[in-house]
Specification:
Structural class: alpha/beta
Number of strands: 7
Number of helices: 9
Bound molecules: zinc ion
Shape: globular
Radius of gyration: 22 Å
Distance between the termini: 47 Å
Mean pLDDT: 92
Low-confidence stretches: 8-16
Helix content: 25-40%
Strand order of the largest sheet: 3-2-4-1-7
Order of helices and strands: HEHEEEEEHEHHHHHH
Length: 266
């Protein structure tokens, strides 16, 4: 009530009510956009109770949390405020991604040890993905986020993170027109060519960097490069994500990094 009264008084004298003093809103600058330039998708990697506790009380946060059962979208942080979900991260040289993004955490157990000690990833229920898609569409429309800036945590922090993981259906985002996706015919044509002559590691590193990753330029298939290759494969070729350079991965990478036709911005 204390805040409302001065606002009413200011309204009466013809001013806005966001300041305790008169501000003139007669002029508007043409060059401006949303502070949210990226949309980052995650899996929580835990049970519902553990995820909720972590994201509300333990130093990390996200704007949205999408529960799996029952499917429900929770907002934990106002979109105008910063959430802490990206951590140390980079995409096309941009590093302040918490400040420039909206984060969506998707409830999912993530990567857990299987019976033989291997890592197992858990499926996302289709209804949960429906909710994520609707949420992404809404956010992207309101903030004007570019398709190539709808990313996974593993894209921006491949050495630390694998989420949302190989079971996340990125293809459904592509089918909804939300993200770029490599044309299968163009991939097949290049794959046949690369099967005859696979590019060297330097080529892969250069293309992965061009795509957006922070990746070493050593020319050697070091663990960091394999890790970047692995998360790239999880997203675009989830049937095999061993981090080995191969013809199909090269083909996908080349198609995704082809120059855009003139006049079309990414
Ligand atoms: Zn994450």
């Amino acid at each position: 009530m204390k805040r409302i009264l001065p606002c009413l008084l200011l309204l009466l004298v013809g001013s806005g009510c966001h300041h305790p003093f008169a501000v003139d809103h007669s002029y508007v600058a043409k060059d401006q956009d949303s502070r949210a330039q990226f949309l980052i998708l995650h899996f929580t990697g835990g049970t519902w109770d553990a995820s909720l506790k972590t994201l509300t009380q333990e130093g990390v946060s996200a704007h949205y949390l999408v529960r799996d059962n029952p499917v429900r979208v929770y907002q934990l942080v106002d979109e105008s405020r910063r959430a802490y979900h990206a951590g140390v991260s980079s995409w096309k040289g941009q590093t302040q991604l918490n400040a420039a993004s909206i984060g969506i955490e998707i409830q999912n157990l993530g990567d857990t040890p299987g019976p033989g000690g291997e890592i197992v990833y858990h499926d996302y229920p289709p209804e949960q993905i429906d909710a994520v898609l609707a949420l992404v569409k809404d956010i992207v429309a309101r903030h004007g986020i570019r398709p190539d800036r709808i990313l996974g945590h593993s894209d921006i922090a491949p050495q630390r993170k694998v989420d949302p993981g190989p079971t996340f259906p990125w293809r459904r985002l592509a089918e909804a027109g939300l993200i770029p996706w490599p044309d299968p015919l163009a991939v097949a044509e290049r794959q046949a060519r690369f099967e005859k002559a696979l590019p060297d590691v330097k080529w892969f590193q250069a293309r992965l960097e061009q795509h957006g990753f922070k990746v070493p330029g050593t020319g050697v298939l070091d663990p960091d490069t394999r890790q970047v290759l692995s998360v790239f494969q999880m997203k675009y070729r989830p049937a095999r994500y061993d981090g080995q350079p191969d013809a199909e991965t090269a083909a996908i990478l080349e198609v995704l990094t082809m120059p855009m036709p003139s006049g079309r911005k990414p």
